[in-house]
Amino acid sequence: MKRFFDYLKPFLPRMSLGLTIKFIGTIMDLLIPWILAHIIDDIVPTREIHPIILWSGAMVLCAAIAIIANITANRMATRVAAETTRRIRHDLFSKIVYLSCGQIDKFTIPSLVSRLTSDTYHVHHMVGMMQRLGVRAPILLLGGIIVTITIDPVLALVLIGVQPFIFATVYIVSKKGIPLYKSLQKTVDQMVRVIRENITGIRIIKALGKSSSERDRFSRYSSDVVKQEKKVGYTMAITNPMMNLYLNLGLTGVILVGAYRVNLGLSQPGVVIAFLTYFTIILNAMLSISRIFVLASKGLASFQRIVEVIDTPEELCIEAYPVESSNYHVEFNDVVFSYHKNQADLNHISFKLKKGQTLGIIGPTGSGKTSIIKLLLRLYDVDQGEIKINGANIKSIERSKLHKLFGIVFQSDILFADTIVENIDFGRELPVENLLFSTQAAQAAEFIDSLAEGWHHRLSIKGMNMSGGQRQRILLSRALASHPEILILDDSSSALDYRTDANLRKALSEHFTQTTSIIIAQRVSAIMHADIIIVMEDGEIKASGTHEELKRTNDSYRAICQTQLGGDLYDAV
Questions:
Q1: Which of 285, 310, 335 is the last residue in one of the domains?
Q2: For the ranges 145-149, 209-213, 364-368, 531-535, which has the lowest average pLDDT?
Q3: Among 17, 64, 385, 505, which one is most buried in terms of CB atoms within 10 A?
Q4: Residue range(s) defining the domain that contains residue 327
């Protein structure tokens, strides 16, 4: 709750003004039945028209002030709710961006998406309703009870006698509601995951004719959400009927007691009419309070899920390590790593690269090639061993400085729905000559120039209006544009034809001689000219050396060469 009020603190002056206006409007609502009782019991018996008109005008004035005040306060409440939610959403998104990959794996992407969307919406709804009803409903409730006590204390006891039952019901239901809403949101997370998977893989689903099975899979998760929503709904739906029961019993009691007292001359008809009006006001106030508890249960459950992410401690902290003099640019020293901390995914990985050298990594799928890159970028921390750049342990390098050293093209990389030039620059505000040079080196300039809008050609989401080879060349241009110290290419030429691939490698060797390159590839031709090639298998380095050395000494590498290059070409190479 303290964190929640921290977000509301900047808006306290505005909220105070809004609540004051809401208070004035609510008091006006409470005055109307009192004025009506005064007219019936005190003014009408005098048979004078002027006082009746005067007091009727007062009722109209109270109603007008109440309407204007409530509308003004509600508009202010909406603005506060929107601004508060914007701040929460901003903090949540900022935290998600800086979560380590291990923490993202723990929360899961669908859960983070759900927290950033539906959970923030529930908080927005709660903040708005708290201001609109959180003041009005209690004032109407307490004010109605106080006014009825001043009018007729005996009839007021009937109303007061119902209150303990009402508060007990609200407490019990809200106490059960918050855990149920948390459980519901977890179920929604699972459904979001399925939806995300289906939307991302819609082409392959259609191509393989799996639409019906995926529809059935979605239906199962959707049914789970429906069951959970029913459970929550049934629990929270108890509130309104019970409120109506208690208050209607109280209303019946007021009529019976009121009729008895009027008959004995202990009360007046106007007082009973006013009591019935106040009882209706109190009824609506109690229903509003029960609604607030429902929304608060949902909103607080969602806010707890949001805070769970925001308060997650930083996992990849900067640590102090001495910087040692080294002749090597990149070093892996006996690195061991496991994603789930139960079985090593990388085991005793060691290699050293001098500045300007090229490392080629080849191996079957799942052998740990990409994991090496993730550790070098410090997306995860090693379990054992150390990784150094220019003699400095990467744990001692600030994240912003570390990542500026790299130019990266991942195996499954992303292009955004923006222009080509914005996708290449990527918000780095690089010089135009750097962008031009990178497109030429990446062999992208030719097809970009052929487009009607050139650099300003707008890409669709994920660049789906481009071919696979064009997308890869734009991504390569992005990686080369900053002239990085370390260039990482993770299977980034798989969609390129051999001629374009050869021209790319030629450009890299001519213009990026001081850039240390790490190339992950499935094609031998992409790494055969590397200074060092390592063959990965089951998370271990099975062999390392130059292309010629591995041809002679490693059966796995020799078999890959024979398969991909063919007999005659293999012998020529």
A1: 310
A2: 145-149
A3: 505
A4: 320-405+485-495+518-573
H or E element in which residue 407 lies = strand 406-409
What per-residue string of b and e applies to 421-447 under the rule 16 or more CB within 10 Å gives b? bebbbeeeebeeebbbbbbbbbbbbeb
Is residue 344 one of the residues assigned to a domain? Answer: yes
Number of domains composing the chain:
3
CATH of residue 451: 3.40.50.300
The span from the CA of 155 to the CA of 254, in Å, is: 6
Tokens found for residue 29: 């609502």
Report how many helices (DSSP H) and strands (DSSP E) the chain contains, helices first. Answer: 22, 10
List the Cα angle 188/190/196 in 5-degree steps: 100
Write out the two tokens for 504. 């790319």
Handedness of CA 464, 512, 491, 568 (dihedral sign): positive
Residues 477 and 490 in one domain: no
Q: How far is CA 499 from the centre of its chain?
A: 43
Interval 530-542: pLDDT, tens: 899 999 988 899 8
44 and 138 together in one domain: yes
Same domain, 344 and 385: yes
Q: What is the DSSP string of 465-495?
A: TS-HHHHHHHHHHHHHTT--SEEEEESTTTT
Copy the structure tokens of residue 487: 């260039």
Write the pLDDT tens digit of every residue in 104-138. 888 888 888 888 888 898 899 888 888 877 777 88
Q: Is 461 exposed, middle or buried (0-12, 13-18, 19+ CB in 10 A)?
A: exposed
> Is 147 within a domain?
yes
Cα separation, 20 vs 452, in Å, equals: 60
Please state the separation of Cα 537 from the chain's center in Å: 37
Query: Is the residue at 397 inside a domain?
Result: yes
Residue 340 has pLDDT above 90, yes or no: no
Q: Token match 């650099």: residue?
A: 455
Q: Which residues of 237-261 are buried (b: 16+ CB within 10 A; e: fewer)?
A: eebeebbeebbeebbebbbebbeeb
Q: Do 272 and 369 lie in a common domain?
A: no
Residues above pLDDT 90, as percent of the chain = 11
Residues 135, 278 within the same domain: yes
Q: Look at residues 186, 231, 194 and name the one whose alpha carbon lies nearest to residue 216.
A: 194
User: CB of 293 within 8 A of CB of 174?
Assistant: yes
Domain presence at residue 62: yes
Task: Give the C-alpha separation, 124 to 131, whole Å.
Answer: 11
Q: Which DSSP state fits 419?
A: B
Q: Name the nearest CA neighbour of 23 among 81, 71, 69, 86.
A: 69
Compute and round to an integer the Cα radius of gyration of the chain.
35
Q: Do 102 and 134 have their domain in common?
A: yes
Give me the sign of the Cα torsion angle 230, 232, 234, 240.
negative
DSSP 392: E
